[in-house]
Design a protein that fits this description.
Blueprint: E1 19-27, E2 32-37, E3 40-45, E4 52-60, E5 64-74, H1 100-119, E6 140-141, E7 144-145, E8 157-159, E9 167-169, H2 178-193, E10 202-203, E11 206-209, E12 212-214, E13 220-225, E14 228-233, H3 245-257, E15 263-266, H4 273-278, E16 284-289, H5 292-304, E17 310-314, E18 331-335, H6 344-353, E19 357-362, H7 365-377, E20 380-388, E21 398-405
Parallel strand pairs: 3-5, 15-16, 15-18, 16-17, 18-19
Antiparallel strand pairs: 1-2, 1-4, 2-3, 4-5, 6-11, 7-10, 8-9, 11-12, 13-14, 19-21, 20-21
Helix pairs in contact: 1-7
Length: 411
């Protein structure tokens, strides 16, 4: 007898909590193992390609099912012991049980598969480049807690895997920098001591900066990338794996300058990471942002680093390129949009401006490939695809795609 299913459960092809044996063939870009039974796709988180596993079905969709991993019957030779005791419960990491070289290989493969399936583009993907440090690399974490009950704050940590509201208590995090883990116990103790002062749940900031931890979202944080020094508000976005940033920004610089462009537009410039690290490769650089606050930090960072060939412009999202006077044929554009990717309106503006070269940096290859399709249809062709593992042991990656107007290296 199976337990009573949820009201909306569809009982085909499997009953609720039916146990199945399945061989795993691949990993999805969300980090789950995927296998097939009589051609029917089943997703099983924390399983690995080549494994035979016992799993318990909890949902049937129109063309696939989802199941929890119960037991690994035949393990993969690539399976390793997870470093964190919370792996599998905490939703932060997906790959701690997979050897690191295979993590890189699967991330490389997943980028290629996304291009093929979402944009019908087949193009060689360079091997995913590793972070110089694969543990204790995150310079920022944001644990959460709920409103106290009877003076008890409850878990202080991250969402449980597969849950929308359940929190897992996280006293230490092996992918957070040592500086953060050093300060985390005292910060947690201080929160618990003030439990009754919180009228609702909240998010806690821990930003590593200059060998200390900043918890004030509005305080100034500092990061070093090569010889450059960047300052920004601690709660604002800044790439949070400093160990890979010199190689990462250096690669973007190489790709942007490869066609001989004299001018650079950094279309989502933030506090100036790409504008300023790339400035020495160009005669003039223009960083463009919709946020005046971010633009002001970029200007301060340019002045502090004595970079004089970069200017920063605040522009509305509908008119990003209106103030740019660079000749398009001699201009490269770097774009690093939020996870949701570019809007169709932005890509229309970009195509209308018509730069010779576009270097698209993305933390979500799925939205990047969606935008790649639109750029390809507008006459831009791929010249290079390079994944970077900014987030070891998680499903996340950064991907740099270089596109050339009306040309490019054919696969």
């Amino acid at each position: 007898m199976f337990p009573r299913p949820p009201k909306k459960f569809v009982p085909t092809p499997f009953e609720y909590h039916q146990e199945i044996e399945i061989t795993i063939d691949a990993l999805t870009n969300l980090g789950s193992g995927v296998g097939r039974i009589d051609g029917w796709v089943v997703f099983v988180p924390f399983s690995l390609p080549g494994e035979t596993v016992k799993a318990r079905v909890f949902r049937n969709d129109k063309n696939c099912s989802h199941a929890d991993l119960l037991e690994v019957l035949v393990p993969s030779p690539d399976r390793i012991e997870a470093k964190c005791p919370l792996f599998g419960e905490c939703g932060g990491c997906q790959y701690q049980h997979l050897s690191y070289d295979k993590q890189l290989a699967w991330k490389t493969r997943q980028v290629g598969e996304l291009m093929k399936h979402m944009a019908a583009i087949t193009f060689p993907v360079n091997d995913c480049l590793s972070s110089a440090q694969t543990w204790n690399y995150r310079s920022k974490i944001t644990p959460h807690f709920e409103k106290a009950k009877d003076g008890d704050l409850g878990p202080i940590g991250f969402l449980a895997f597969g849950r929308r509201s359940t929190l897992i208590d996280v006293p230490q995090c092996p992918i957070a920098m040592d500086t953060i883990n050093r300060e985390l116990p005292a910060i947690r103790e201080g929160l618990r001591a003030r439990a009754n002062s919180f009228k609702r749940g909240a998010t806690v900031l821990l930003r590593a900066t200059e060998d200390r931890v900043e918890t004030d979202f509005k305080a100034v944080a500092t990061e070093h990338v090569g010889e450059l020094k960047f300052q920004f508000l601690a709660g604002d976005f800044f790439q949070n794996n400093p160990f890979i940033l010199p190689a990462f920004t250096g690669y973007v610089a190489k790709q942007a300058a490869a066609g001989g462009a004299k001018f650079l537009v950094d279309a989502y410039c933030g506090s100036g990471l790409f504008s300023l690290t790339l400035a020495k490769n160009f005669e003039q650089v223009a960083g463009v942002e919709v946020s005046e606050t971010s633009c002001e930090w970029a200007r301060k960072n340019a002045a502090a680093n004595q970079i004089t060939n970069a200017k920063f412009l605040t522009a509305s999202a509908e008119a990003i390129f209106d103030q740019i006077s660079f000749p398009a044929a001699e201009t490269a554009v770097v774009i690093d949009p939020p996870r949701k990717g570019c809007t169709p309106e932005f890509i229309e503006q970009l195509v209308k401006f018509g730069p010779a070269r576009v270097v698209y940096v993305s933390c979500d290859p799925a939205t990047q490939v969606r935008d790649l399709k639109q750029l390809s249809e507008a006459g831009y062709q791929l010249a290079d695809v390079q994944p970077f593992d900014l987030f070891p042991h998680t499903r996340h990656l950064e991907c740099v795609m270089t596109l050339v107007k009306g040309g490019g290296v054919q696969p």
